[in-house]
Design brief:
With about 220 residues, this protein is α+β, with helices and mostly antiparallel strands. Helices cover about 15% and strands about 25% of the residues. The chain folds into 2 domains: about 30 residues; about 140 residues, Immunoglobulin-like, CATH 2.60.40.10. The strands form 3 sheets. Strands 3, 6, 7, 11, 12 and 13 form a 6-stranded mixed sheet that branches. Strands 2, 4, 9 and 10 form a 4-stranded antiparallel sheet that branches. Strands 1-8-5 form a 3-stranded antiparallel sheet, with no helix packed on it. The chain starts with 7 loop residues before the first helix and ends with a strand. This is DUF4232 domain-containing protein.
């Protein structure tokens, strides 16, 4: 008895069935890989980065406060006159080393104009010297004849020291001028109304580190 062989159509159906099974198996694997309902979003989330401690060398500088809150000027900080650790190890400036000059921004002032006062320092010696140019060592005095009208130290608050090195042959000036409000000063009237200066000629005398300037005359109209 002869065995009947399957027809070509049967072979094709068998191959299609096997192929379908393979596709179902592969599709299920892909579905499982893409959709895993047993995992929560927290389980699949990327790990949070660990906070890093900032490097002390790169942290911002701590703000500091200055001791001097008064408007009195100090000589401008320049390469020729700058605070220096070595300033205290060099000779202290004397009246023979430094010339102090009183400076006004004008020679004559109209009604309501306020004189702006400054200091100029020049080392006329042969060597560098150290000098205290802080507000604690400064004094501006305005007088008319023998009558002293105003002193910068009368109502000064929180005076400070500033030691600088003055190089020979160099000049430095105040960083900010001191403004006179054209009134009479007194240590007992700092918070009171003060008499206004009359029209006339006045003289400005500046002292820095115990060294006096020549008087500079100016006029109020």
């Amino acid at each position: 008895m002869s065995t009947r062989r399957p027809t070509p159509a049967v072979y094709r159906r068998r191959r299609l069935a096997v192929l379908l099974v393979l596709l179902l198996v592969i599709g299920g694997a892909v579905t499982l890989a893409l959709w895993r309902p047993w995992e929560t979003p927290e389980a699949t989330a990327a790990p949070s980065p660990r906070p890093s401690t900032p490097d002390a060398a790169t942290s911002g500088p701590t703000p500091t406060t200055t001791a001097d809150a008064t408007p009195e000027p100090t000589p401008e900080v320049t390469p020729e006159a700058s605070p220096s650790p070595s300033a205290t190890s060099i000779p202290v400036c004397t009246s023979g080393d430094v010339v102090v000059t009183a400076v006004t921004d004008q020679a004559s002032y109209g009604a309501g104009e306020k004189p702006r006062l400054s200091i100029e320092l020049e080392n006329v010696g042969d060597l560098a010297c150290a000098m205290n140019v802080g507000t604690a060592a400064q004094s501006f005095t305005i007088s008319s004849g023998t009558d002293v009208w105003w002193r910068s130290t009368d109502c000064q608050t929180e005076p400070s020291d500033l030691i600088v090195q003055l190089e020979p042959g160099k000049k430095v000036t105040s960083a900010e001028p001191l403004v006179w409000d054209r009134t009479r000063s007194s240590v007992t009237s700092c918070d009171d109304d003060r008499p206004a200066a009359l029209a006339g000629y006045y003289n400005l005398l500046v002292t820095v580190g115990g060294i006096d300037s020549e008087e500079r005359q100016f006029r109020l109209r």
